[in-house]
Amino acid sequence: MNTKLTLSVDEQIIFKAKKYAKQNNKSLSQVIENYLAFLTEEDESDLEISSTVKKWAGSIKTEEIEMHKNDPKYTYLMGKYLNA
């Protein structure tokens, strides 16, 4: 169930947040809700990481990700799997 929430936020922050939301095809409400959900998530630091994940961790460098951001296939896959 969604409930209305009134916030007082600096005008410049609101402007930047709206721009961010638009660039990511989300509403400002979605962005704020996702952030609040992130802040209130249970601490999962005690989860065991599988050997497969450990093996692949760090294999993709940030520079490689940045290099592909304008690739239509990258955009499609990011939207499909990360913005579901």
Helix count, per DSSP? Answer: 5
Radius of gyration, rounded?
Answer: 17 Å
Shape: extended
**Helix content, binned percent:** 55-70%
* Main β sheet profile: none
Number of strands: 0
Sheet/helix structural class: mainly alpha
**Helix and strand element order:** HHHHH
Provide a brief overview of the structure:
The chain has 84 residues and is mostly helical. The protein has five helices and no strands.
Q: Explain this structure to me?
A:
This protein is an all-alpha fold. It has a domain of 32 residues. Helices cover 57% and strands 0% of the residues. The chain has five helices and no strands. It is extended, with a radius of gyration of 17 Å. The mean pLDDT is 83.
Topology:
Elements: H1 11-23, H2 28-39, H3 51-56, H4 62-67, H5 72-82
